[in-house]
Design brief:
Strand order of the largest sheet: 1-2-3-7
Number of helices: 9
Number of domains: 1
Shape: globular
Helix content: 40-55%
Strand content: 5-15%
Length: about 240
């Protein structure tokens, strides 16, 4: 009634100023976790079990895997669907790459069906497990453990190596530097690094034993449907 009355007086309703279409559909375009996909040059990138990166002069470009290929570190922390492991993964990505919550939420949402607890879903090996002994080598032993056991081994080893200092600024005195390079401290750090390298290999063997393809050069596992996360930093920072 009011609309017809206003039209008789010569008023014409203005066009809608809504940014979101009236039918409720979302604006077109890539999701937040893939907004920076075009800027990543994989041919120039270095990488490890968590991400790949390269400089571009004004910052760094990062990629968390590639589409259909998840980093082994991501796979290891998502084997069992444990909430604390997911929190550790987010912590690693925020401290390493400075990724914001909105981009992480977008990435997790896109990969929930593929990643969350996938290790338990594929752990359907029914063959009897032989008793492990000192004579059994790692490549034979690693595939025999359960998904939850592999998840725990990986998560704890990852956490021991990637301990984040609670101090914003490290000590800089000569005495601090000398003690920080003491052989006991140095050997502890080297032991944690070696342990992580070994557990990443055990994880790769465990996944291969369940039929998954591994790219050892890029340290990724083939998980169809996985969506990579791309991020560009403006700040100068090293991975």
């Amino acid at each position: 009634m009011l609309d017809r009355f206003l039209r008789r007086l010569g008023y014409v309703p203005a066009s809608s100023m809504r940014l979101i279409p009236d039918d409720g559909s979302q604006p077109s375009g890539p999701p937040p976790h893939q907004l920076h996909a075009d800027g990543f040059d994989r041919a120039r990138a270095d990488g490890d079990a968590l991400c790949a990166w390269h400089a571009d002069g004004g910052g760094y470009h990062y990629a968390i895997g590639r589409d259909d290929w998840a980093p082994l570190a991501v796979a290891g922390l998502c084997l069992s669907g444990n909430d604390e492991c997911r929190a550790w993964l987010n912590e690693a990505l925020r401290s390493r790459v400075w990724i914001g919550h909105d981009m992480l939420d977008s990435w997790h949402g896109a990969n929930r069906a593929v990643l969350n607890g996938f290790g338990i879903r594929i752990d359907c090996n029914k063959r009897p497990l032989r008793r492990a002994s000192a004579s059994v080598h790692e490549p034979e032993m690693a595939p025999l453990i359960k998904a939850t056991e592999m998840a725990e081994l990986f998560a704890l080893t990852w956490k021991r190596y990637h301990v984040v200092s609670p101090f914003l600024k490290l000590g800089e005195s000569a005495a601090y530097t000398a003690l920080g390079m003491h052989h006991t401290v140095r050997l502890a750090a080297q032991a944690n690094e070696h342990a992580l390298d070994r557990v990443i290999e055990w994880l790769a063997l465990w996944l291969e034993a369940r039929g998954l393809k591994i790219n050892r050069k890029e340290q990724t596992v083939y998980l169809p449907g996985y969506q990579a996360l791309f991020f560009r930093s403006d700040a100068q920072m090293w991975p």
